[in-house]
Each structure stands twice: as structure tokens, then as C-alpha cells.
Amino acid sequence: MLYNTCSIRDKAEQKVFNRLQNFKKAGKDKIFGVLGCVAQQEGEKIFDRAPHVSLVCGSASYPKFGEMLVQLEAGNRHVTGLSIDTEETFDTPFTRRDNPHRAYITIIEGCDKSCAYCVVPFTRGPERSRTSASVMDEARRLAAEGYSEIQLLGQNVNSYRDPSAAGWDFATLLARVAEIDGIRRVRYTTSHPRDFVKAIVDAMDANPVLCDHVHLPVQSGSTKVLAAMDRLYTRDEYMRRIDWLKNAKRRYSLTTDIIVGFPGETEDDFQKTLDLLDQVQYDSLFSFKYSPRPNTSALQMEDRVAEEEKQRRLAILQEKQRAIQIRRNAELIGEIREVLVEGRNHALGQWIGRGSDHRTINFTHPENGGESLVGRYLHVRVTRSGPNSLVGESASVV
Ligand code: SF4
User: Fold this and answer.
1) What distances in angstroms separate CA 346 from CA 45, 87, 118, 340, one per listed residue?
2) Index of the ligand 1 atom closest to the CA of residue 112
3) Close Cβ partners of 157 (under 8 Å, ≥ 6 residues apart)
4) Rounded to whole angstroms, how far apart are CA atoms 187 and 209?
């Protein structure tokens, strides 16, 4: 029984140990392995706290996973894969994909940044890019299998560097993947503003297959807090990227991540973040209260913001963003947009689609004998809007 773990949430390790106890009861006579970021973070301590576990393996060691299984088969009950000192990336020939229309392709693993709040460089190791040939082969194979949307993944996709002689950068890779026959949409996540260069916007402008959406995590609107976070850009430098996008040929939907209550964040810093929301007018954002993580430099920082104050700031931020989204979504009423149909809400008699700009649109479509529309691209007229989604009616099949 292999338990894959994520350490991005607060107190993730406690949740993992609780679950491991439950698994133990449910899985008598089974062999247990813990994979992923909590495995990397807690390491061999897992054997002490959960003695029924026989394998602890972080993601940087997945290329050696086959060898580890052989060791387990041979009876070894303390097998580890915990080195992050690696240059290997893994190809993913056996990836399980549950969505038959959208496929994710990892292009780069690990992270060479050292943001003060983030545990990723410790759990995922240094940056390693896959060769462009391997990414392109996988994308072509997926297109041939009928996938029409590709999402390129990495902790920091913008710093992608093809390790082969071709030497492609991220903008080149994006442009080439978008040219593959059968691929109608290409997305990517996550970007780091420092490495988000103008060539990426130019590549997007040149080919509408590259979706009308950029997720550019800012984290704070205060240059002082950005410096404390070690984010490697100022507010002005971030805004330069936003200006490229606002002055581009197409209208791009902009989304971001924000942390409130980072150590040392004053009321004035927080106001700067609110002011940034006014300035950028994001289409959506993910917001979090700062919470400490093991092995991060922010752990040593003093001047912590009280929990109630973090909660207050989060509520104000979310309320402001909600008002922005209500206004921005209402501006789209009357537009006709192309959506990829993702599902059906039987209770409401609506189909669920997603626009190139990543907005969800729930829409009605004339009765068609019960045939599923999932995976099709349709034109939909927007008739109503809410803070988080649009409502519409089918306009035509494209
Ligand atoms: S760039 Fe992203 S993954 Fe890397 S350290 Fe910063 S927050 Fe973490």
C-alpha cells in the first residue's frame, strides 16, 4: 500500500501519521510505503513513529522506485529513497490519467529558489528539466490518443532549460507544443515572476492555442515583504510583467497567490497588497494565511502576526477580491466564448465548460438525445455571472 503525501498544508505530517495508523488497522498483512513530500521531510523518523512502514521515498528518488520494490520483495523492511542530490528527471510512461481530454506533462522538477516560507526546495530537490525531445514525444503521443488540452507542469516552469543540444527555453517549448496537430489548448503552471520573461508573452500572443490565462503568483504587494520572503523581485518589477500582459494583443485572464500575515507584515504592507489588487484587477486568486513550515528560513523570523490578525486580513482581502470578480465577470455578459465541455450538472440540467481564460461556465444546450458533450468544444453565449463562474446558453458547435 503506497501512500502519496503532500506537505503544502499546515501540520501535514501530523495528518499523515494519523492516516498511517488508520491504514495499519485496515491493511493487515500489507506492506506500507510513504511517498512524496512528507516522506522527504520526515525521512527515517517515519520508521520510528510508524513501525509498520517499510518504504520511505521522496519524489526525487522516483527513478529508483523499481529497485526499491525489488528490495521490498527481497524482504528488506527499511527501504529509503531520500537523496535530493540528483540531476535525474523522470519520464512518465505509466502516468495514470483520469481525464480523457486534458493531460498534464511535467517538464521540470524541483526548485532552485529559496522563498523563506516554502518547503519545496527541501522536499523536491534542485531544478531538473526534461529534454525537449522527451516532452514533445509525450505531447505528440497524447494528441494522437485524443487529448486536446495539455498542461505543462513544474514548480517553476519559466526556468525550464532543455538539457539537450537543442537548448530550448520555456517560451520556445511553449510555442512548439502549441504547434502539435490535435492540441487545441496549452496551459502551464506555475510561473515565478522573476523568470517570467517577455518572450513568453510574445509566444502566447503569436498562437491562440496558448490559453488566455496567466497565473503569476505575487504573494505580497509590499516590496519590503517580498524582500523578506526572498522572492527576488520588487513590486515594480512584478508590475512590469503585468503591463506586458495588459498591453498584449489578446486579453489575458490574470490570477495569483497571496500570503497574508508573513512575519513582519505591517498594516501598511497589507494595505499595499490591497492596493495591488485594485491596480491589477485579478480574475481570481488563491489566498492563504502564513503558517510556518519545517526547514524554512521564515521559521527563525520574529515579529509574528497574531492568528486573529491574519484571519482579519484574509477576510478583508477575500472580500475585496470577491467584489472585483463580480464586476469583472459581469463585464462578460453578452460575449460568445469557446468552452471545452468538462461535465454535466444533472440537477441543474446544465453542462459545465471552461473557457480558454480558465473561467467556468455552466450552460444549457438543446436536448440532443442524451449524447454526452464532454470533451467537445462549443460556443456559448454568456447570459449571467457570479463571483466565481458564468452562466450561459449554447450558441453553436465549433
Ligand atoms: S519559487 Fe515556488 S516552489 Fe520555489 S521556493 Fe519559491 S514558492 Fe517554493
Assistant:
1) 48, 48, 41, 18
2) 4
3) 107, 108, 170, 188, 189, 190, 191
4) 9
3 state DSSP class of 214? strand
* Cβ of 116 less than 6 Å from ligand 1: no
Beta-carbon neighbour count of residue 291 at 10 Å?
14
Task: Name which of 49-58, 79-88, 180-189 the model is least confident about.
Answer: 79-88
Within the chain, what is the greatest distance between any pair of CA atoms? Answer: 65
152, HSE (Cβ side, Cα atoms, 13 Å) = 34
| Any atom of ligand 1 within 6 Å of the Cβ of 113 | yes
pLDDT at 398: 47
Global pTM reads 0.92
> If you measure from the C-alpha of residue 332 to the centroid of ligand 1, how many angstroms do you get, rounded to a whole number?
33
Dist CA 277 CA 256 (whole Å): 10
Q: Is the pLDDT of residue 88 over 80?
A: no
The dihedral built from the CA positions of residue 326, 328, 330 and 333, taken in this order, carries a sign that is negative
Q: Look up cell 449554447; give the residue.
A: 394
- State how beta strands 128-129 and 108-109 pair: antiparallel
Q: What pLDDT is attached to residue 90?
A: 66
The CA-atom distances, in angstroms, between 278 and each of 221, 261, 275 are: 11, 19, 5
